[in-house]
């Protein structure tokens, strides 16, 4: 059993870490993340939006279609984050539906895929040598990019548009 002082230190360390979750598990919108990007930078958040397939991969967009940012997998980053993606049944459905609905059905106006995801929201700058540098205070500069590092799929909702 941990002593109270040790437990307090562990809890304070977790609470002060740069990758702590947003409190009260509020589900944010894409707009909220982008409009207050410095507040949520490098934090684990839950976000709801529409998955739209882009030439470069899945993007998470506001339900109205813009703004958007890329959804990336932890294993595709270097350095790798300190978490892995939870590849459960919902993740399998996310992969299947995002390619089927996010690309073909969306263009045909038949369906859209709304998701709630948990992951780390990043502001970063891509250097000329190809390296990415995470930034906390994202000013409205064209050099700052945003992405969502997927940790877990929380909910999927297919909306038929017919």
Domain module tally: 1
Q: What integer is the average pLDDT? A: 79
- The helical percent reads 25-40%
Query: Number of helical segments?
Result: 4
Strand order of the largest sheet: 2-3-4-7-5
Q: Could you give the distance between the termini?
A: 58 Å
Structural class: alpha+beta
What is the CATH T-level topology? OB fold (Dihydrolipoamide Acetyltransferase, E2P)
Give a short summary of the structure.
The protein is an alpha+beta fold. It is 27% helix and 38% strand. It has a single domain, classed as Beta Barrel (OB fold (Dihydrolipoamide Acetyltransferase, E2P)).
Keywords for this entry:
162 residues, alpha+beta, OB fold (Dihydrolipoamide Acetyltransferase, E2P), five-stranded mixed β-barrel, 7 strands, 27% helix, 38% strand, globular
Commentary on this structure:
It contains four helices and seven strands, in the order αβααβββαβββ. The chain has helices spanning 4-16, 30-35, 37-40, 89-108; strands at residues 27-29, 43-54, 57-61, 68-72, 111-126, 132-134, 144-160. The chain is globular, with a radius of gyration of 17 Å. The termini are far apart.
Can you lay out the helices and strands and say which pair or pack?
Blueprint: H1 4-16, E1 27-29, H2 30-35, H3 37-40, E2 43-54, E3 57-61, E4 68-72, H4 89-108, E5 111-126, E6 132-134, E7 144-160
Parallel strand pairs: 1-2, 4-7
Antiparallel strand pairs: 2-3, 2-5, 3-4, 5-6, 5-7
